[in-house]
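Retro notes, structure queue

What went well: the backlog is down to a handful. What didn't: a couple of records were mislabeled last round, so from now on we paste the full input next to the output in the thread. Example, using Nucleoside 2-deoxyribosyltransferase from Candidatus Gottesmanbacteria bacterium RIFOXYB1_FULL_47_11:
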Amino acid sequence: MRIFFAGPLTDLKNPDATKAFYTQLADTAKHRGCDYFWAFLNGTDPIKNPDVSPKKVYQVDTKELSRSDIMVAYLGEPSTGTGIEIEFARTHHIPVYILYEKGKKISRMLRGCPAVKKELVFTSRSDALTRFDTLLSRLRP
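Corresponding output:
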């Protein structure tokens, strides 16, 4: 199973901690035998790769998303790009699983998107990883 990971990358409040969490999600997927794509690990990170054009970012992300079986989106901070990717997933019939912290206010429009198959609401990063691992065990027994 191939996973397209999505989440905010631009103007993060705490980029090191957020990207460390993203890496932990990727490690969990790898442990479960999944292939994955994370933009920040693949040449379009806005900090590490500022010279990549917006058009190229769109092309790379949509190509990789179209090759994926599912999308996992972290919604911890606002991200227009993540919203666009979720809508792209919907129009291409790619199931979306969203992750966010308990108590976080997430757009009802996004939560109501037909592509969203499950909401993983967590209380800590370790709880998020456990919930994500459980999801993968059900999707990929």
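Agreed that this is the format going forward. Reviewer comment attached to the example: The two ends are 11 Å apart (CA to CA).
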